[in-house]
Amino acid sequence: MPEGPLIYRQRLTTRITHWLWAVSLFFLMLTGLQIFNAFPSLHIGKEAGFDYDNAILEIGAREVGGEVQGVTRILGAEFDTTGVLGLSDGEARAFPAALTIPSKTSLATGRIIHFFFAWVLVGTLAVWLVASALNGHLRQLIPSRADLRALPRDIADHARLRFHHTGEYSVLQKLAYASVLFVALPLMILTGLSMSPGFNAAAPWLLEVFGGRQTARTIHFLTMVALVGFFAVHMAMILLAGPLNEMRSILTGWYRTDGGKDA
Amino acid sequence: MLDRRKLLLGSAALALSGCKVFDSATDRDSALRNLFASHEGLTRAAQRAVIGDRLAPEFSEADIRQGQRPNGSVNPDGAEYRRMAGTGFRDYRLTVTGLVDSPQSLSLADLTALPSRTQITRHDCVEGWSCIAKWQGVPLGTVLKLAQPKLTARYAVFQCFDAIERSLSGEVFYYESIDLIDAFHPQTILAYAMNGAPLPVANGAPLRLRVERQLGYKMAKYVHTIELVDSLASLGFGKGSYWADRGYEWYAGI
C-alpha cells in the first residue's frame, strides 16, 4: 500500500465524465445486444447476404434429433453454445435475457434507450474534450517520447504486478485510456452513424471508409467486444493496484501516492 | 468508503436481477419510456440540419446481388386485394385525398404514364439487415402536385391493404406517414417496378412507397390511399404509423 501524501489527482470534470461514460456504456452495450438479437449475424459488405454468404458470425437455434440446440458459427466454424448463445432458458434468442435491456425481447425499447445514451456519450465526450484541452488533462494522456522509452520497463513492472502510485499515469495507462477515448469511442460513434440511412445521405464517404453499412455494423460490434476487454482489464487493475485508493480518486479526486520514492 | 460500498452493492443488485429493472421502459407511455424516447426530437432536428435535401447513396447494377428480401406482410388476404391481384391490378386506383384542392383517383396506367425515376438503393430494415435493389416509380411530389395540397397540409398519410393484426375492434391495417420535406424529396417515389419487373406481391404490389433516407418500415407496401393531413393525432394510437404506435420512432432516419 502506498504511504505517501494524498494528492488531488482527478478533477471534477474528469470524475463526472468518467461516470457518465460508465453509465452510458453499460446501457449502450446491453441495449446493443438487444438490437443485435433482432438480426443475430454479422456481415461484410454493403448488404446482408441472403442468397449468398457474407456472414462472419451467426448465432441461432436449430433442432437436432428432436432437441433444440444453440449454435454459434464464427468464420465457418460451428460451436454448440446451448444455454448461453442461441438458446437460453428454453428460449431461442442470440444473447440471453440477463445480457439485454430490456430483458424480454423488445427491439423498439432497446433502440430508444440505445440512442438516448448515444447522445449522452457523444455529449460527454464533447464536454470532456473541450475541458481536457483547456485544463491540460488531454496532455497527461498522450505518451511522451520518454514514456515510450519506458514502455518495456512498464510492461515488466505490470507483469510483476508492481505498480507505481504517482500523480501521473504510467505509459500503459496512457496508451489504454488514449486508445479508448481517441480510437474506440470515436469508432463506435462513426460506425453507429454509418448505420443511419439519414446520416448516409449527409456523409456517404463515411460508408466508403468503412466498406459498407454491414461492415460498419460488424466493426461496431467488434469495437464493443474490445471495450468489454478494456473494462475487464480496467477492473483487474483497480483490484490489483489497491481498490480503495483507486475508487477514492475517481469518486473524490484524492489519491494516495508512494511519496516520491519511486517514479 | 461508504460511497464505494453503495456502488458495489448497487452494481451487484443490478447484475443479479439481470436487466429486469428497466423492463418498465417497454410499457407504452411509462415515464421511463418517455424519458428515453425524448431523444427522437433531438435526433430528427440534428439529422435534418446535417442532411438538408441531400440524396441517399445510390448504387450500381453490379451491387444488386440478390432479390429484395420481403418482410412484414407478404401476401394481403383481404377480399378486395385478392380480387385485384387476380386480375393484374387492372382496376386498382390510388386515391389522393384530404387537405388537397384537387382529389385524385389514379390507375396504374395513369401512374406509369407520368415521368418516372429509377434508383438503385439500399433498403435498411430496423432489424439490422440491408438489401440493395432497383426501384422504379413516380416521384410522390409529382402526384401530390396533381392533387394541389392546401397550405394547411403537413403530413402525407399512406393507407394500405395489408392487415397486420386483428384486434377486438376489427382488422388493424398498416399505415405510415411522412412530413412534406420527405414527401417532396426527389428520391421519394411510389414504386411500381423492382429490379426491372413489375413490383411482386411480396414486395408491395401494385404500389409501394420508397423513402430512401429512412428505415424500411417507413416504406409502406400495398398503398391504396394517400391522405394529406395537418395532424397525426386522430390516426391509430396517435403516433403517426402502425409501428410508431407500437414503440418505434416515427422519424426513422437512424
UniProtKB/TrEMBL annotation, chain A:
PROSITE patterns: NI_HGENASE_CYTB_1 (PS00882). It comes from the Bacteria. Gene3D superfamilies: Transmembrane di-heme cytochromes, Chain C (1.20.950.20). The chain crosses the membrane at residues 19-39, 112-134, 175-199, 219-241. Residues 10-253 form the Cytochrome b561 bacterial/Ni-hydrogenase domain. It is found in: Cell membrane. Its main location: membrane. Signal peptide: none annotated. Keywords: Cell membrane, Electron transport, Heme, Iron, Membrane, Metal-binding, Transmembrane, Transmembrane helix, Transport. It is a multi-pass membrane protein. Belongs to the HupC/HyaC/HydC family. This is Cytochrome b/b6 domain-containing protein.
